[in-house]
Amino acid sequence: MSSHVLLVEPEDLRRRLAGVLLQYAGTEKASRPRLSQREMAMMLGTSREMVNGCLESFQAEGAIRFERHRMIINKKALEGTAMDIMKAKAYALLRVKNTDLEQAAAIVERQPGVMMIDQLEGFADLIFAVQAPDRESLARLMEQAIATVEDFTEEVELLPARTR
Q: What is the reported pTM?
């Protein structure tokens, strides 16, 4: 079996690693993802040593800490680190067909790039925000998130956020 390692810019790797950690962190403020550094490196197309370096910088920033060989994620701090890199954001309003709203919300919430989701009363049933480093990535992540609940959805409205 051959392996390929891509050369990645450090900031791009930090952004992508922060995204992986946030995706696996769940909804708690501090969670324990069960990914090894080797698995993270394989997901990101880089070396374990590069992942280790990024994790050390996240630890120095207070975004993660290690306890008994487990990584504890401070989700708010890691989101802050990721926010410095994330430049594009959009919201989606979904009107959901007669189905379990909780189920649709849970499915969307697990998608990469989804930073928040809330149930609404009125015209739309759900609102969620997707954040990405650029508009191209944002479009891809938003499309992916909407596609996961396409069978449940009657209507979708996208609202891009203004960049600061």
A: 0.51
